[in-house]
Amino acid sequence: MTLQANYDVLVVGGGPAGVCAALAAARHGASVLVAEQGGCLGGMATRGLVGPFMTCYDKKGETQLIRGLFEEIVQRMVAIGGAIHPSKVRAGTCFAAWHVKGHDHCTPFEPEALQFVLDDLCREAGVGVLFHATFLQPAMEGSRVAGADFATKGGVRRVMARVVVDATGDGDVAFRAGAPCELGDPARGGAMQPATTFFRIGGLSEAAVEAVRAKYPQDVFCFKTLIAQARAEGRWTLPRPHINIYRGVRDGEWFVNVSRLNGVDATDPASLSDAESEGRRQVREILAFMRDYVPGAGGIRLMALPATVGIRESRHVLGEYRLDIDDVLEGRVPDDSVLVCSNSIDWHSGGKDAAGTVYLEVRDGDWYGVPYRCLVPRKVDGLLVAGRCVSASAAAAAAIRVMPPCMAMGQAAGTAAAIAAKSGTAPRAIDAASLVAALRADGVFLGE
Question: What is the spatial distance between Cα 348 and Cα 345, in angstroms, rounded to a whole number?
């Protein structure tokens, strides 16, 4: 790749939202660069080992809502044996960690398969990809974001663009450009959802886990009785009283989601550094517990540790519209909705000793919409945001922060960025009806 000085669209961050933004913009005729601080695309799905993809269906489990690029990526992984299509995965099974609410039609996938697929898609679309590029600061022209500076192995590089998409997850570009932001939940003194260090294990058959579950039918989730025993014996110090394990594509392989890193501020380098170390300590404790207490798990092996801790919440960029809890629960679908989804509010409690989770499903209707205005930050021009940092209250963000909606937001942001760049129009001024029409033409389901 030859790094240019100017692009139509610059995407900062190559996670689920960012890569979909880059692909969408390129397919709509824009020259595109996606700058990623790691060495692969996929963000939390690859470097963070966060899996499976949560549901992409309506609350009844009947209609697939998140389609478009998400569906294309999943189908590519299925074709190489690296994923199971969500249509074949039901709630209450090992693929959903035996959860029922909000977990119907999850998508098991292998992070390595996703890396391959995203590389291929970007190459085919002509997306420029700059790895090992750490965002430093936006290049401003008045109130307009006109590009960004990155720290690279070759020194600081400036890339200019007609439109920039902030897909950093933490709203770093928007924040440093002067867009108003909220950190965490202002109603709770800025408290943020806890972080988690995901990891993958092998050598534990589905049959072995089912045998343990049959022995302890009173346990709604995995190993709760055994954890209580270990806690009494001083062998379990984590706040969570059970283990979430999601079966992978192949029997014997599992994604483990149980570590609890409370009080982590992903925008504070010291806090983030402490979280990385503590997360790995907790992984060792979890592995020791499973090997010593869980029948059939004595020979489990650690397959992979993540390259980065999993972050659920940090900044919420304030946009032209702020999605709120009532929008989600009441199933509101504004005219400028760029995606519809039915993901439940999954609000993990924060605080020093908190272990619980608030879980609220859509109350009215089968889905809700995320309006384009949530992607347009206030007070700053030339910029769109996509992913978990979009304009939403802490409660509403707890629903749309998961990866399928983030990928849909990315596709919407990239399409809008291309329209704006090609027409010379500010992103906030583009015709929302035209954007919606373009998304529908690209296979995005918007409730028709």
Answer: 9
